[in-house]
Each structure stands twice: as C-alpha cells, then as structure tokens.
Amino acid sequence: MTSPEEGTVPGHPFPFVSSSSSRGERSAMGASSSPVPTQIGYNSDIGNLKGENARKLDLTQGVHTDLPSFRLEPNHLASLVDPRNLGALEATGGIIGLMAGIGVNPTFGLCVGGRALRPEEPPAGEKGDAVEQCTHESPPFSGTVEDRRRVYGSNVLPARNNRSLLELMFLALKDRVLIMLSIAAVISLALGFFQDFGPGRESGKPPVDWIEGLAIIVAIFTVVMVGSLNDWQKERQFRILNDKKEERGVKVIRCGIERIIDVKELLVGDIALLEPGEIVPCDGIFISGHNVRCDESGATGESDAIKKVSYDDCIALREQAKHEITNGHGLDAAYAHADCFMVSGSRVLEGYGKYVVIAVGQTSFNGHMLMTLRGDPDPTPLQEKLNELAKLIARIGGAAGLTLFAVLMIRFFVQLGAGEPVRTPNEKGVAFVQILIISVTLVVVAVPEGLPLAVTLALAFATKRMTAENLLVRILGSCETMANASVLCTDKTGTLTQNAMSVVAGSIGIHGKFARNLTGNEARTNSQDHDQPQERDITDTATELQVNREHADDFSIDQREINTILSPQLRRLFNQSITINSTAFEDTNAETQGVPFVGSKTETALLQFAKDLGWDNWKESRESAEIVQMISFSSERKAMGVVVRLRSGRYRFFLKGASEILTKKCIRHVVVSENADQTQHPDSEIETKAIDEITKDTISRTITLYADQTLRTIALCYRDFDFWPPPGAQVRSADEVSYDDFSRGMTLVAIIGIEDPLRPGVRGAVASCHQAGVTVKMCTGDNVLTARSIAIQCGIYTDGGMIMEGPVFRALDPQDRLKVVPHLQVLARSSPEDKKILVETLRTLGEIVGVTGDGTNDGPALKTANVGFSMGIAGTEVAKEASDIVLMDDDFASIVKAIMWGRCIHDAVRKFLQFQISTNITAVIVTFVSAVASGEGELVLTAVKLLWINIIMDTFAALALATDPASKSLLERKPDTRGTRLFTADMIKMILGQSIYQVAIILIFHFFGHTILGLDHSEEGVKIVTTLVFNAFVFSQIFNSVNCRRLDNKLNVFEGILSNRYFIMITLVETIGQVLIVFVGGAAFQVTPIPAREWGISLALGFVSIPLGALIRCIPTPPLERAFVKLRIMSPEDLLPTHHQT
C-alpha cells in the first residue's frame, strides 16, 4: 500500500518513492536519494494491483535463512515481482547485480555438475569442459545445486495434508445430529440387550429388541461412509486433474547448452527460455529477446498484452516518462504496457526471449497465492440449520421422554402404594426398567435417524449428476449453498467472455457492413437498413444525426455470409492481407488437444475469422508468398506490414493497424456489392474507387460507431508497386526501405471491429439467474466503457444500476459502501482486493455470495465467497484451488445448472423433513398416549415395528425423496436468506395436518378398533386390530411420501414421478415388504394375516393422505402464518423470504 512517504508526480498514473522511503528493502540496500519510480509500465486500471493494494509477501519468512553462498534472500527476490518494484531492482544493482547476487552466468546459466560459472570464465566449448571449469570457490558462484535448492527452495509446493478416509470419517462423526444418534444408539442397544436377555422375558418371544439400536448404528455407518467416500473421491479426482496439468517440460540454458527439464526441477538462477504459447512457470526478470508480449490476465486481471523489455530499456522508459511528464506531455501507451518482470501464471503471446528465475515454488506469485488459499470450508447454511434442528429435536425429544418418565413413575409409585398389581421385588425392578425403556424409546422415536442420510444421499446423487454435466464439485456442501445464493460476482475476462479476441463487425470497402449474428446486433452496422439513431450519451441532436446519417449504397449482411459479396480476387486479397501480414500460427494445446492460433490477440482474431469463412489455409498462403520486406509492429506507427512479390512480377504492400491512422493514408477503397460476380478469376483486376468527402464521412462514421461500442478497430489496406524499392524511396539496405516513403496512397480493404466476445449462452444464463432471484455483479480490470458495453450485452447492467471504478469503491467509507453495494452492478478497473472487499461487504449485508473467476487474481475472492466457481480449461491452478466447484467446460451457463441442483438438494432435504417430522410427531404422540393409557405400559408399536417404520421413513424415504432430478421450475422462485428456517409455513401446515390425521386414525383404531370392526377381545381379535393399526400406519407413510414430493401449493404430486425410477422402485419395495411382513412375519412383528376387509380399510386409510394433502394445500397460507407467529412456531423473520407457493 502506498505509504505516507510516497508521492505521485502530477499527471503520472503510478507512484514514485521519495528519498525518505521507509521500505525495509530500500533502506537496507542504500537507496538513491533521487526519486525512483517503484514501477514502470502500469496504467491506472492495474496500478491498484501492482502498487498500492498489491498482496504483500510475508518478508519475515527467510530473515534467518542461512545464505552460505548467496547475497540475496529468497523473499527479497520474490518482493521484486510482487509488487513489481523497479526501484528495488535498481537498488539491488540492476540485472547484473541481481545475477551476481544469486550466482548465475547470464550467458551460460547454471551448471548442474557443481556451481554456476562466473561471468569472466566461459566454458571451453564442450559440455565436459564446462563442468570441469565449475571449480571457482568465491561466493556466490561456489554454491552447489543442493545449496541453491535449500536456500531458495524447489519449484514444488509443500504437499497438501490430504485427509485419509479414516480422518474424513472421524470429521463426519463430529456432526451434531450424528452425535445425538450415536448416544441414542448406545442407549437403545444396551436396553435392547437387557429386554432380550434380562429377567422377565416372556417365553417364546423372539429376542429382537436390540435390533433397533443396531439399525441406528448401521444408519450412522452408512452416512459416514457415503459422505467420506464422496469427499475422498472428489479430492482425489481434483488432485489427479492438477497433477496432470503440472506435468510439462521447460526449456533452460545450463552450462551453455539448451535443454528441456521438468518444470519441478527449475531453480532460482536458471536461465529459462520463452516461446509463444508457454505458461510462465516461475517469477523472473526478463534479460533479452525479440518482441515478447505476455497475457497477464490470468495472473493479474490486466487484459492488455504487456511487452517485456530488458532492465536497461525499463530504466530508459522511466526516464523518458519522467521527462515527458515534466514537460507537460501525455504518457504514451507504450510506457503503460511494458516492464521487465515475468509473473508466474502469465502466458507468452508472441516473441522469443530468456529470463532469469528469481522465485520458485511457494515464494513465487503463483505459489504464494496457492498457499494462502489452503484452508477448511466454512459451514454451509444448510449445515447450520440442520445443527439448529438437531438441538431443537434433542430438546423436544428429551422433554417428551422426561415427561413420560415422570408420568409413568407417578403411576408406578401409586401402584406400589396401593399394592396393585402384586409384584415380587424382582418384578418391581423389571417394571422400573421397563418404564425407563419406554421413556428412552420415546426419545429414540423422536430422533430423525434418516436426516443425515437424506442430506448425504441428496449430495451424492446430485454431485454424480453434476459431474456428468461438467461440474466438478470439490466441496460437497457448496452444492446446497448454491441453492440460496443471492448474489453472483463474476469476472469478465475468461468467464463472461472467451478471453480470445474475435471479429464481431466490420466494413468491407466502404459500404459492405457485416456483423456477427446480425439479427439482434443490428446496432453494429450503420447501413441504410437501420435508420434509427443509435442510443448515445450526448445531448446535441444535430451532432447525433450527423454521426448516424447514412450513405445510400450501404448495406448489411451477416458475418457468415461475407463470401456472397466478395469476388474471388477480392476474397484472396482479403485473406492475404490477414494471413501473410501476420506472425501468429496454429499450435496444439496439450490440455484440450485443440489447435488454436497462438500470437497476439488481434492477429489470432483475424486468422480465426479467415478460417471460419473457409478461406485458403494461412500456412499455405504464408509459405507461398515471396516476402521482400517486413515492417514489424511499432507503437509509433501503430501498424505492421509486409511487402511481397506477386507472380506477375509486381509488388504488393499489405498494411494493417490502427484504423484512425491508416484510413488517413488511403486514397482509394475496394468496391463490393450485394451480388458479387463469383465467376471471375482470382488473378483478375480488383475494382477500386477514389475516396471522396462523402466516403471519408462514411469511414469516420464507421470508426466512431465501433468506438462507441468499445470495439477495437483494425484497418486492412494495400498498395501495388511496379518496382521495388519504389523510385525515389530512401533505401537503407537491400531489404529495408523507409516506411514513410511507401506507406501512403493506400487502398482500403476493410475496417474490422474486434472484441473479446461473450461465451455462448451467457445472456441466457444471466437472465436465468435474474429469474431465480440471483443478482449478477461484474468485476473487471477493464475501463468503464468496455465494462459497460459487456455488461449491457450480458444483461447485467440495467436501469437504476450503478457502475463504479475500483479506486473509488475502495476509498469509500465502510458505511457508505454498505449503501452503495446493493445498487452496484459493475465494478470497473478493479483489483483483486476490490473484488474481495465487495464479497466481504455483500456477506456483511447477509447475502449468500457466489464468485466466478479463472485467474490467479480471482483467488482471494473465490476463497472469501460462500461458493467459488473456477474454469476447468482456462482456469489457473490458483483459481481451481480456491474454488468449490470447477466448471469443466468453462461454460458460465453451467452455473445455472449448479443453482438448479443446489435447490434440488435443498428441496430434497425439506421434502424429507416434511415427511419424517410428521411421522415422528405421530410416533411420539402415539407412543406417549398408549404408554400412559396402558396399565402394563404396552405400546401400540413394538420395537420391531418401529424398526421397520424407521427403515421406511429413514433409509427408503431418504433415497426416494433425495433422487428427484433438478428441473428448470426450480429457478422460478427467489432464494431463501441465511436466516430463513428449514420449515416454511406450507411445510408446517402439511406436517400438522398429516400428523393430526395419522394420530387420529391410529388411536381410534387402537382403542376402538374392536367395536368398529365388530371383533371380540380374543387373542386373534387383538392381533387383527393390532395388524390393521400397523398396516394403516405404514401405508400412511408410503402414500404420504408421494404427497411430500411437492413443497408448494400445487396439487399435482405425481408431476415428474416417472422420471424418478428410484422413487417408483422404492415404493414397490416398501409395499411388497409390508405385505410379506403381514403374511410371514407374525412371530417377530406380532402380527397376523388379516382378511380382505381389513386390507381394504388399512389401504384406504393410508391413501387418504393424498387427497388430504390436496385439501391442506387449498387452505390459505397467510392466516396460518400469522397464527404460527402468535404460537411461536415461526418467527416474524421467516415471513420475509418467498415461500414455496403458487
């Protein structure tokens, strides 16, 4: 952060350090008293990252490092790059002092056989001789490879403490619900053994009471194993993904010989080579090279290419910048995008060069970011709610058990006093234990054993389906967190856009306007087909009409149909203007196995444009051309060109560059028409026309139109010569003619508009997010105009929204920030710190925040968010490490699927709760009433019956209700807030209605069944009534599980049931199982086969749950909500979120 001692030269966008700087490094190094820029080549949109708000390394690490042979500490070297500090590098002695300090020969590199060569002792020429000469003993060149690795580290990160399966199981057991279940299981098992094998056991009664406790233990084991195996498998899958990406070779110079080594073998001091397409593996200082430009968007968020120049050139640029600023001149863009620092994680776009490695492993920018992101995830909202539910159930169940125990003990003492019934001392002890068992049984019945299983199964099922849809879930809990995500903060570059420039509009000649996907993008042409003025932020109506007035010959066409308006000779000219006048090329991507173009983003966009149109292969065109002279790109002329010799013996000069400059050099333009003659020969003469005043106006309008839409405009033009060099031109050498002598009198071929296009499906995904109540906010390092354009295209920027720049947002008072953030839709020129502050502010406001990103700079915000999404293909290792979910196909639209599946999981848990709590309430009330009413403490439902019911309402119901697939209808409601309870008013209404019905039928038939059915009180009659009650209760649960498939007030509970084969199969298994129990399970379950009449009654009583559910749904919810609030069943806050209702 900029200290008070730092100042800023007026008009200069980056800070200067004064002579009183307090920085430790500068004081220690004896900094010069003259003002020295801390950095060169950073415009204001990234200055925040690389200057005042850059992430600081912990310089206390390595203070006591043993430096037997080296003069520079590892963290001092790392701090040169992060933040980039040219002043500190200068104080170190520049590139020469740096390499001397770490002991490396700038020409011959390190020698793996011993130490580095000193600059004054080059090898004799052979590898063996070079190794033999590595014997000089003066430090730091006397340090061995082992010394270098010990002091500066290896290019590997410390192995993450990946938890074993046993550790994951132990962590899973810490869940409060499972702890409660474990206690209940131990007590139930102990008392079960006492009942089965203790005194007072009835002869002939099977010893099955202990099975209840065992069943709970099995349920706990299943939950722990399924959850732990899921976590272990996902972590292993992610680790394999990263390990595979890390396997690559790097070219270095060692002992004067170029060789390829494993990236993990790189050392500080290695001279590494740069090639187009390479990912920079370590931090370093650029030594030398030709036209090296790097894309640092993945590491820093800077979307413009950064040119790499030597240290000496950096110093010269700084002095020139100071001179121009002092004289009141503006700063050229070249200064704002050039430096000598190589940042790990950036990609080389073009050029070749070499650099010295100064930081590897965890001290590099990439490595340090990865290390800071390691940590355990926070509890998810659903986990927090389930923990609260566990506490509530424990309290209610405990209170019910204590109440029952007190009631039964009062009756027990009354019986003791009255002497009725007559009991022996042993029988009295058994009776007391029986009271304890009944009370504990009530508590066990109240505990929802299947709840953790329902959550685990829902997560396991969803993550498996999500993996099939290219969503790799690293943190299982993140799935359900996404259900209620209320804000999504997304990066622009590489997330909303493709991070690859593409041609999206253009003008061939003067009148042929084209646009990608013309339908819906008519505003990108200014032809006569569209006579409405474009919306612009100007007030001068006359000016607006002047800008948008049309030419009579203008016409529009879709980009895919360009070939229909081009004659064969014009098509070949257009293609050659792109393919020959370019240095980009195709190369195989090791990760995707695709063959993308590699080079500057502008050139790759043009080459891809030609390829998509099916024009002649770039390689064949380039190799067949006889190149006479090349004019490399220069920031002064803002153009590049090439002169080729034609087969006719004439010469053609192709030129491309900034349209506002090159169009002024043109005096003619090619002619196109809507109906081009396709029969002409490619060698035919190209029709051209002179540029007059009206034509100049058309050109100006076109450039202005594209500029207003933040498109980067490129002009393609050419000129033919009869001789080369042209007569009268200044000739410097045989292949070098002065550019100014022949770069005029050009013929305009086309003006091309390029931009980083949106990913397919982004507009629809943003619209779906808005429909689902998820606000999308965009954070980008680009300027306000570009950010606004992309945000409008995506549908992010809407009426009433706010766009703000990062520095302004960062400077806000925290209280003001809380007021601004709800209206903020676009954060432009933002640094990673700005994005993190935004996420923290949103979380302070109670929002559940999802963050997307693909770059290293997105890491802190991804980790801070509730859920972080990274890109599997374009995403950096840092982004993936920080994320919870990896989008394997890099499709932003996949986030909508994540929201759907998250809500599906959340609904599955709620469906299960709606089902099980109603069952639990019924079981608790029936157990309580029957225990109090029975003089012998006999229960309606025995332990074995309760076991079967628990299996139905726990394992089977969890599996059935957790496997409903996600549907788009889940996006039709708003997300719940973090404070929203698990139970909505509709759920409570259904739970109470079903529970009252089930309690009523069970108790009525339990106490009055003989009278209703006309049966006597014989043993057979008692068994028939008992079986009917058991049957009715079971079928009530089976039909209620169908009823619980809906959480809203819609009546069709069978919607989508055929798409869930698990539900159908489980319902069949439950039904068949119940029939078998009645017919063959008499001894264990104390039931008997019943006649058809009783079967019909029990089935009818169960089926009533479905029409009863429809009737309950028709009851208006608002009056009940108010009643629930008065009864303290709900709190007023629970009324705020949208409920599941029509």
From TrEMBL:
Spans of biased composition, class Low complexity? 18-34
Q: Which domain of life is it from?
A: Eukaryota
Name-wise, this protein is: Calcium-transporting ATPase
Which residue numbers delimit the P-type ATPase A domain?
Answer: 247-369
EC class, as a word, reads translocase
Basic and acidic residues: compositionally biased ranges? 120-130
Q: Where is the composition biased (Polar residues)?
A: 35-46
SUPFAM superfamilies for this protein: Calcium ATPase, transduction domain A, Calcium ATPase, transmembrane domain M, HAD-like, Metal cation-transporting ATPase, ATP-binding domain N
Classify the main location.
membrane
Q: Which family does it belong to?
A: Belongs to the cation transport ATPase (P-type) (TC 3.A.3) family.
| Originating organism | Thelephora terrestris
Where does the record place it?
Answer: Membrane; Vacuole membrane
| Coiled coil feature spans | none
Transmembrane intervals: 177-198, 210-229, 392-414, 434-462, 912-934, 946-966, 987-1009, 1021-1042, 1062-1085, 1097-1116
